[in-house]
Amino acid sequence: MTDATSARLADAFMHVAKRLRGRWMHQLAPLGLTPGQGRALGVIARAGDGIRMADLAGRLDIVPRSATSVVDGLEDQGLVLRRPDPGDRRSMLVTLTEAGRLLVSRIEQAQRGAAEEMFGTLEPAERDQLLAVLLRLNACGKHPGSI
Amino acid sequence: MTDATSARLADAFMHVAKRLRGRWMHQLAPLGLTPGQGRALGVIARAGDGIRMADLAGRLDIVPRSATSVVDGLEDQGLVLRRPDPGDRRSMLVTLTEAGRLLVSRIEQAQRGAAEEMFGTLEPAERDQLLAVLLRLNACGKHPGSI
DNA sequence: TATTGTTATACTCTATAACTATA
DNA sequence: TATAGTTATAGAGTATAACAATA
């Protein structure tokens, strides 16, 4: 009984996620960015004075190799730049360029637009409730491989 | 204010979706299936006497081309078979083989397992509430491209 | 002409393994 | 030896366009 509800939950959940991702893609496409790049640019912007690749990967919950691809794409468009960490020359610090800084607000606007398209029909109380549940789900059990 | 909540909602939502997908992949991997294949096998099983490629794609909310890849994978493993629709020779009817039938219950068990790992910590009332909200979100605004 | 499914192609995201350069 | 980031490679998912067979 409970199992069936969980399965239906998972199905409905992934369906919403798919649509949310699609809307986000369409919002970001005019800016020439993929969802992953948009997300990364936000993290880099919030980091302020430069963020190391490993830390960026951690914040985005992706493996370091994926962070390389994302930053490559942003760098190709002149939105970020890499410079060696003065304190540890193995590390790279990623910072926004002026062009990147100018784009951040438009990206956040696109993200909000996609989110509003998806969740705009919910009552404010429902959103708060949903957010609380999601944060709790994210808070516990961070190990996808193990139980 | 509301915008900020929606953006945080979207972020938390996609994070849960990512982890749910990861757990699902790990549950299905021992069966040699990808999440898309597992989902498709369930739809084909519920269709009973054969489902057309276009209908399968519609149920999975993917483009017909993607359905071809999914069914290819299942057919390679001998879990489904294609036969021409007697009523319209342009169409293909996809049905389960005996091997596919035997696997369905294990797949559903894996899906429930992943869902339980993710949503098991929620109270029953919370699950019902969450499910209701998700179904409502999926019910309205089915057009990702347009507004 | 329109529809069904396919081949061909491409891009995003993800992941593992091996390599380079530092530490 | 250990770590940071990269190159190399691979597979899943998605999408569009062009094509063949059929309606």
Offer a concise description of the structure.
The first copy, chain A, is built from six helices and three strands; from the N terminus they run ααβααββαα. Chain A is mostly helical and 147 residues long. Chain A has one domain: Orthogonal Bundle (Arc Repressor Mutant, subunit A), CATH 1.10.10.10.
Describe the protein.
- Two copies of one chain form a homodimer.
- Chain A is mainly alpha-helical.
- Chain A has a single domain (2-122), classed as Winged helix-like DNA-binding domain superfamily/Winged helix DNA-binding domain (Arc Repressor Mutant, subunit A).
- In chain A, 67% of the residues lie in helices and 12% in strands.
- A three-stranded antiparallel beta sheet of chain A has the order 1-3-2.
- In chain A, strand 2 (80-85) and strand 3 (88-96) form a beta hairpin.
- In chain A, helix 2 crosses helix 4, helix 2 packs across helix 5 and helix 3 (53-60) packs across helix 4 (64-76).
- The longest helix of chain A is centred in the first third of the chain and has 27 residues, at 2-28.
- Chain A starts with a helix and ends in an 8-residue tail after the last helix.
- Mean pLDDT of chain A is 89; it is low at 143-147.
- Chains A and B meet through helix 1, helix 5 and helix 6 of A and helix 1, helix 5 and helix 6 of B.
- The structure holds a DNA duplex (23 and 23 nucleotides).
